[in-house]
Amino acid sequence: MSNMLDKEFFTEYGEANQYEIQEVVGKGSYGVVAAAIDTHTGERVAIKKINDVFEHVSDATRILREIKLLRLLRHPDIVEIKHIMLPPCRREFKDIYVVFELMESDLHQVIKANDDLTPGHFQFFLYQLLRALKYIHAANVFHRDLKPKNILANADCKLKICDFGLARASFSDTPSAIFWTDYVATRWYRAPELCGSFFSKYTPAIDIWSIGCIFAEMLTGKPLFPGKNAVQQLDLITDLLGTPSSETTARIRNEKARRYMNNMAKKPRVPFSQKFPNADPLALGLLERLLAFDPRNRCSAEEALADPYFFSLTNMEDEPSTQPIPKLEFEFERRNLTKDSIRELIYREHTDSGVSSSDAAGIP
User: What is the pTM of this model?
Assistant: First the structure.
């Protein structure tokens, strides 16, 4: 059976002899993910086969960005790329195989399937997510698409953030506007300032909001703000948090959004103890700091880790920080890339990553 799968999965190249495909575990717009065994180490891995990478420059750029970020962000709560398989001929290749560590499930499945999650689980899950964000934000990276499906999970309750295809590295001299035009992240976990390009400067607080939404979903088993469009999204948010202060609305730069907020009927804030009646009061205290309407009032990941809710878990040694990513690594974001230049950059990532490879031999 496996041999059949190997043949279907690997095209004309790919070190098929090193990996034994076991089963296809997921399909996406990009291609297929299979679980496999690395025959050299006996380790189980996930192989993402990305088809026709260079058909669209935007897709290829996204893959380059993800490979680059995962090479640069090494952290126990972030999924790790083990290997990138490229063809012997660098000019022609269409498909890429990226080998990741294999995780059993994702947080969406865990929340859906488990009625037996305990307050201890919620606390440990949130702790890992914030620990990852502290590190990501210290690197000056915004993930921008945090949602339960982008958080991988194992039976031992280990979580790892994945899918950095929408993430961006931010540099002090970059005008914030150019970056964010292609913002398409999942609406339900989108911060209010993204539901109508509200505030002029995006901050890491957009990720903190998403983590708040995810945490609330763990507590109740269902999404907190499942809006059908941007306007309904804002209605749901203000139904819970109340209408923002006039000082907050005055800072909304988008005139239509500002008018909408100003004309909204005044709503009171719903106490979190009423919305989440069975939750630990300390958990709700932290949730309020994550889900502040105004990004300036949201706590940072580092501040959240110091919250009393984590009193029994916090351990600075387990909460590493990092240096900002060098600007040079993301020079490509400023250029108009052709398919060939992206192909070249992906090849370079592959050789830079210290990934051992027989197929790098053909590179001059």
Answer: 0.87
